[in-house]
Amino acid sequence: MNKSRKFLISLILFSLIGQVAWVVENMYFNVFIYKMFNATASQISLMVSCSAVVATVTTILIGALSDKIGKRKIFISLGYILWGASILAFTLVRKDVIGALFPTALSVSAICVTLTIVLDCVMTFFGSTANDACFNAWLTDVTEVKTRGKVEGINSMMPLLAIIVVFGGFMFFDLSKSSSWTAIFAIIGAVVVVIGVLSFFLIDEPELIKEGNQHYFKNIIYGFRPSVIKNNVVLYITIIAFAVFGISIQVFMPYLIIYYEVSLGLTNYVLIMAPAIIISAGVTAVYGRYYDKVGFIGAIVPALCCLMLGYILLGIFTNVVLVFIGSLLMMTGYLTGMAVFGAMIRDYTPQGKSGAFQGLRIVGQVLIPGIIGPMLGAWVLSDAKTIINNDGTQSFLPNQSIFWTALIVAGVTLALSFVVWAVQNKKSDENKTDKEQ
Fold first, then answer.
1. What is the distance between the alpha carbons of residues 108 and 371, in angstroms, rounded to a whole number?
2. 368-397 confidence digits (pLDDT tens)
3. Interior/surface letters 102-137, b for 16+ CB within 10 angstroms, e for the rest
4. Which residues contact 384 (CB under 8 A, 6 or more apart)?
5. What are phi and psi of 90, to 5 degrees?
6. What pLDDT score does 288 carry?
7. How far is CA 371 from the centre of its chain?
């Protein structure tokens, strides 16, 4: 197998399976604790926020460690294997199992929600080690500036392809039954373990300079030093804009499937969403090349306008056709925006420091959005209508206010994108002046 083909297989396989695991966590853990244990919006927000904190801290620590020892592959391989094992552990989070362990507990559901949050953090630690910290650093290590838009386009379409895989697979399960969730966690956990084993044979270790003489903890805080920030101002402003973009997404994303299925009554939402996902994935696959041609501002403005138009349609209409169109625009804007921000961050990451800067990227991509976004969503849903379940418990109904809130935040992202563009042009002019002198 030639090197370029091996890289392409590795990119697609590990990115896709990693995103499948993240889709289950980010979109279906919320459904899991909502349906199985009647979780509230605040509990869902807490779970997302805790996971975001763990993901960030893990990526900072492991990314810096992989830079120091000059290795990526071992973290990717073992990380994927343990990631899969932690997913398998969720097969035991059931009322019958927990009820047998705690027969005197006043609320088995409350224990199950707490246990889900804890295990979610464990899963996030291994997943962020494998994917966020080291797989993403590996991608930066083995790609060149002139091809990063193309590679990031493929990488950024994987979340949508993962949604197709997950949605398609979940069609065959009744998510109101505990046995369905047990099967889902068993299948996905086993697949991730297998991928971890395959990574030993498919991923080539990049040639990195081992920083054995550098203090590990200095490497951890490298990306937060004032001097580094001053020398890489475009990168940091881009990450700030990326964080606001992520907040917009996280306002609605934890509640999206619940909104489709429960609030709108779209029990066949998988069939409705599949075409939108496929089209969005196709657009995203080629959009990275568009970034390579037109640059940051030329690519990010259409992506954000597409996202915002999708929010408007979802905020106004509940008709199936218009919900489909709104979802298509929203997903296309989301994924193309991810591709643009991802490529921009890779382009401005200092050479030889990709591991250390993965933690900084996660601060913008996961930590800030994962805390603020769900909190905003829970806040706007604080007075949401409730329904009475068959067992007498109550569940909240997400409403369209999450899309209007997301729209406002997306508008702020658009404004910040022009700030990034202005600073980028200023730095470019300064560099040209320095070279002429």
1. 27
2. 998 899 889 989 998 888 777 665 667 788
3. eeeeeebbebbbbbbbebbbbbbbbbbbbbbbbbbb
4. 41, 396, 397, 398, 399
5. -70, -15
6. 73
7. 13
Closest Cα to residue 402, out of 242, 257, 279? Answer: 257
Rounded Cα distance, 149 and 296, in Å = 10
* Alpha carbons 47 and 113: distance in angstroms, whole number: 9
Token reading at 19: 């995103």
Asked if 254 and 377 touch (Cβ cutoff 8 Å), the reply is: yes
Instruction: Give the pairing type, strands 386-388 and 394-396.
Output: antiparallel
Cα 19–Cα 25–Cα 27 angle in degrees, nearest 5: 90
Provide the residue ranges of all domains of the chain, joining segments of one domain with +.
3-202+219-432
Q: Residue ranges of the alpha helices (H) in 203-268?
A: 216-220, 226-231, 233-252, 256-258
CA dihedral 109, 112, 114, 120 (to 10 degrees): -140
Compute how many other C-beta atoms are within 10 angstroms of the C-beta atom of residue 277.
24
* Residue 171, amino acid: M
Backbone φ and ψ for 352, nearest 5 degrees, come out as: 85, 0
Residue 434, Cβ neighbours under 10 Å: how many? 8
Mean pLDDT of 317-338: 92
- The closest of 55, 56, 52 to 370, measured between CA atoms, is 52
The letter for the amino acid at 303 is: A
Please name which of 27, 297, 296 lies closest in space to residue 169, comparing C-alpha atoms. Answer: 27
With vertex at residue 47, the alpha carbon angle to CA 75 and CA 237, rounded to the nearest 5 degrees, is 65
- Return all residues near 295 (Cβ < 8 A) that are at least 6 apart: none
How does pLDDT run across 43-96, given as a tens digit for each residue?
Answer: 888 998 899 899 888 888 888 788 778 888 999 999 999 999 999 999 999 988
DSSP class per residue in 66-83? HHHHT--HHHHHHHHHHH
Task: Tell me the Cα Rg of the chain.
Answer: 21
Q: How many angstroms from the chain centroid is the CA of residue 355?
A: 18
Cα gap 170→32, rounded to integer Å: 12
Question: How many Cβ atoms are within 10 Å of 293's Cβ, its own excluded?
Answer: 9
Domain 3-202+219-432, second-level architecture: Up-down Bundle (1.20)
User: Contact, 119 vs 86, CB < 8 A?
Assistant: yes
Q: How many residues does the chain have?
A: 437
Cα–Cα distance, 421 to 143 (Å, whole number): 24
